[in-house]
Write a structure and sequence with these properties.
alpha+beta; 29% strand; 11-stranded mixed β-sheet; globular; 250 residues
Length: 250
Amino acid sequence: MTTRTSQQTRQKTNTETHPRPVAPAAKAVVPATKAAPSAPAVPDDRSYVSHYLDEVAPASIAGRLIKFSKSGDFLLPDTEETVDPDEDFVALCDETLIGWIRFRGDGEPPDRHAGLLYEGFKLPPREALGELDPATWQIGLSGLPEDPWKHQHMLVLQRPATHELFTFATASNTGRRAVGNLLRHYNRLRTSHPDTYPVVRLKPSGFNHKDERIGWVATSGFVVVGRAPKASAAIPDTSLKTDLNDEIPF
């Protein structure tokens, strides 16, 4: 009897000192809220130097601007001068700027998301820029809402005789295609002659639109007529018309 009472006393003491664990009360399950979609991450392989320079001096137009007019000519807008289609230019292809541009009102600088293609800049997807509802866009020349963000290419050219710089800027499909085809040629040149740039002439081209009411559509074009050493100040000789005489119409 005494033994049993002692055992009961010890059990009671242990229970008070070390109480049995009690299962936690069940919690209400709250359904997870679906997160709002975020803008896709854009890889960026630019070096620190490129990042820094883009902050303090954003890449823009080098030298004088060249544009392709609706009449089918390459023009210098500051003087309304037409570029001679037989004039040679060294295409500084590794200085090509790509990006998105959004024009503001008169006198206001445009908004840009741009960088140097050959410095590792990655073009953000259009969706990452916002303003995706056509109902909020302004009406363009076509009579339809026009996307405020334009995909732009800026190709840097150099006049060999004077080393004067020019920038051909384009946001049209055919203009970007012309620059893209020239850059494809430059990529091949980087393998076969890595220390040279293409020498080009600015030759207008075009095509007959499938809609007969539109007719002939003028497009910008480049004709490669030679190559020039990157590290040389010498005027390139393009008189031989070597196998680099590749026409890149658009």
